[in-house]
Amino acid sequence: MTEDPSEPPETDPLVEEIRKHRSRREQWLREGDMSVGRRLAQIGVLGWIFVVPTLAGLFFGRWLDAQFETGIFWSAPMMLLGLCIGGWTAWKWMNAR
């Protein structure tokens, strides 16, 4: 059985993106815009996605500094690692929708 050359393959990334766009548009037409409260809640969640890993990295770095008596040697790198993890998580969360 031969495939029709005018039909795009099912695994084509462009076709997948068009399907996602179409389903998001259909959902928007069904449900309408989000409320202000829901948008504010999403902004709050996004902030916490950044804050929690950053503070966790800072606290872990301070704990390592206390254990090894290294001043603030581990605090900054662990905080930056937490910030990177928070940024990556926020990026994934924003693009999952």
Can you offer a commentary on this structure?
The protein has helices at residues 13-31, 36-68, 75-95. With 97 residues, it is an all-alpha fold. It has one domain (13-95). The radius of gyration is 22 Å and the shape is elongated.
Q: What overall geometry do the principal axes of the alpha carbons give? A: elongated
Cα(first) to Cα(last) distance is: 37 Å
Rg computed from alpha carbons, rounded to a whole number of angstroms:
22 Å
Strand content: under 5%
> What low-confidence regions span 5 or more consecutive residues with pLDDT below 50?
none
In short:
The model has no long low-confidence stretch (mean pLDDT 89). The protein has 97 residues and is an all-alpha fold.
Any key phrases for this structure?
97 residues; mainly alpha
Structural topology:
Layout: H1 13-31, H2 36-68, H3 75-95
Helix pairs in contact: 2-3
